[in-house]
Amino acid sequence: MKEVKSAFNVSCKNCGLQKVCFPTGLRREDVDRLDDIVDRRSPLKKGQHLFEASDKFSALFAIRAGVIKLYSFTDSGEEIVHGFYLPGDVLGIDALGSKQHQYSAVALDTTSVCTLPFEKFTELTESIPNLNQQMLNAISKEVLDGRMHSELLIRRNADQRVAQFVWNMSERYRNRGYASDEFRLSILHRDVAVYLGLTPETVSRILAKFHAENIVTWKKKEVMIHDMQRLMHIAGVHSSCDSCKATA
Amino acid sequence: MKEVKSAFNVSCKNCGLQKVCFPTGLRREDVDRLDDIVDRRSPLKKGQHLFEASDKFSALFAIRAGVIKLYSFTDSGEEIVHGFYLPGDVLGIDALGSKQHQYSAVALDTTSVCTLPFEKFTELTESIPNLNQQMLNAISKEVLDGRMHSELLIRRNADQRVAQFVWNMSERYRNRGYASDEFRLSILHRDVAVYLGLTPETVSRILAKFHAENIVTWKKKEVMIHDMQRLMHIAGVHSSCDSCKATA
DNA sequence: CGAAGGTTTGATGGCGTTCAATAAGAGTGG
DNA sequence: CCACTCTTATTGAACGCCATCAAACCTTCG
User: Fold this and answer.
1) Which helix (DSSP H) or strand (DSSP E) does residue A34 occupy?
2) Per residue in A17-56, is it b (16+ CB within 10 Å) or e — as a string?
3) Which Pfam families match (chains A, B) (predicted)?
4) Average pLDDT of each block of 10 consecutive residues along chain B (248 residues)?
5) DSSP sequence for A56-108
6) Can you give the distance from the CA of residue A113 to the C1' of nucleotide D6 in angstroms?
7) Which residue is nearest to nucleotide D17 (CA to C1')?
8) Of B104, B2, B7, which Cα lies nearest the Cα of B47?
9) Distance B50 CA to D23 C1' (A)
10) What is the full DSSP assignment across B112-149?
11) For chain D, which bases have at least one atom within 7 A of a protein Cβ?
12) Domain limits of chain B?
């Protein structure tokens, strides 16, 4: 099952995201065995779906590069954006119970993904004890992310929501070893607005204000944070060690 | 490890909630083995905590009777209510990753709980294959509940939120075999308000309106639903089979 | 019984939505 | 490469929902 390597087809062993996918670390031989079951397809183009709501669940996915938006629609047809998944994030957990995807996942940019067939993954779990805990970590992260999202939607005004979103993205890139004060973000303002429970107009106005006050500039998929302190202050991130918590 | 039985100390085998705790069903001998590891303490009184944020995680909990509120505080000291747990619900999943509770759980009424020591539970998992899937179901439910909460907080006005909350509670009681149009609910309006991202005043006003329009009466912990159709309509639950979905 | 906390009701104001119209990008085909 | 179209972003004005503040009433519990 060993395959030819390419830019989009690097083994877990040589993947820079190993620490993100498996934070507590697996033994080298265990990573090799994981490699054997991982399926690496050609990258998704912008607008292509990784899966759609009601699809049968057969695998978990780890993002290698790009961005995925997880979304669904309410009974009345409004879109709900549940989250954005960056390199190193695991996708598909919502379907573990019903074996059927509850939401849809679409690429917002060229995105490459590692596929973990769930059957084989479960078998591996029996022989790699640590893998089960890794799984629990990923699941737990999913639950906590959901709670964070709810928290953001309750009693935080529009300024705070936008600031927290930008800061959160910055932290996530930092944890992956990228620059945290300047990064590319292929997410439409419209999608951000839906995620934050706001209208595009409101988000636009707030970003204009942040730009005028020289806190954050977000133009043409390029985000630049000029004043991290004030950004964190607006976001309501007071405790000095929150970045540590986020890393955990 | 077999114990004397009492009203608050019934084995899983004889527990009416078995279908809720283990929806897909376990074999009789497996339930017996579960029984052996379950710890049944004396009930919690109103106001007592099952666990608190930052407590070490050592067990999952299944509610047998009563109500538990899961909550935490923001950096700025505001309370966040993440959810209410009814008989048959599983609590403690948020701590699976970090082995440390992230939120606090307090009894809103006299509440009895089954304790599942996680170590022993994990061991059992190896010999009862179906148990692992039960676990995944519980986790998945936790994720989906969180998403439902977010969904409720986005672009739903106060009327819709309150209606959806009452309807949801009604459904949950119905799924447990209780009356769905008349039930006791030991939750303060204040806690409901925080959960819904509203103020107590707003919730009070809306309940007064629902009462005046003869849709729902909620006085002194007694909820009566007089017009389920209109309640569902306000809640934005249009599809006729949503009760089925909720059961799944 | 008295105190503390929860609920109800009313008046006022602010924040974010809504509607509308323009500007700016992105994608397509000539 | 430019013209054309479609989607997204920006900016302005006005309205409405819900928070806020305040005061009275009601429960609960020591």
Assistant:
1) helix A28-37
2) bbebbbbeebeeebbebbbebbebeebbeeeeebbebebe
3) cNMP_binding (PF00027), HTH_Crp_2 (PF13545)
4) 51 72 73 80 90 94 94 91 94 92 96 91 84 86 94 95 97 91 95 97 98 95 95 83 42
5) BP-EEEEEEES-EEEEEE-TTS-EEEEEEE-TT-EE-GGGTTTSB--SEEEES
6) 30
7) B157
8) B104
9) 37
10) EEEEEEHHHHHHHHHH-HHHHHHHHHHHHHHHHHHHHH
11) 8-13, 17-22, 27-29
12) 2-146, 156-235
Strand C contacted by B204 CB (< 7 A): yes
Residue-wise pLDDT for B59-77, tens only, equals 999 998 999 999 999 988 8
C8 nearest neighbour residue (CA to C1'): B204
The C1' atom of D17 and the CA atom of A161 lie apart, in whole Å, by 20
d(CA B102, CA A56): 32
Distance from C-alpha of B123 to C-alpha of A184, rounded to nearest angstrom? 46
Residue for token pair 């509203």: B198
| Eight-class DSSP state of B44 | B
User: How is domain A156-235 classified at the CATH fold level?
Assistant: Arc Repressor Mutant, subunit A (1.10.10)
Question: CA-CA distance, B199 to B176, in Å (whole number)?
Answer: 30
Q: Which amino acid is at A19?
A: K
A2-146 sits in which CATH class?
A: mainly beta
The mean predicted confidence, pLDDT, of chain A is 87
Q: Residue A42 gets which letter from DSSP?
A: P
Q: Encode burial over A184-223: b for 16+ CB neighbours within 10 A, e otherwise.
A: ebbbeeebbbbbbbbeeebbeebbeebeeeebbebeeeeb
The answer to whether residues B64 and B9 touch, using CB atoms and an 8 Å cutoff, is: no
The answer to whether A122 CB is within 7 Å of strand C is no
Distance in Å from D22's C1' to B201's CA comes to 13
Per-residue flag: B201 CB under 7 A of strand D: yes
Model pLDDT for residues A216-228, shown as the tens digit of each residue: 999 989 999 999 9
Residues of B with CB below 8 A from A146's CB? Answer: 143, 146-147, 149-150
DSSP class of residue A43 equals: P
| CB–CB contact B150 A154 (8 Å) | no
Beta bridge partners of B220: none
From first CA to last CA, the distance across chain A in angstroms is: 34
Angle, vertex CA A82, rays to CA A76 and CA A84, nearest 5 = 140
Give the whole-angstrom CA distance, residue A104 versus residue A94. 11
Q: Which residues of A touch B (CB under 8 A)?
A: 74-76, 78, 80, 82, 93-98, 102-103, 136-144, 146-147, 149-151, 153-155, 194, 197, 236-239, 242, 248
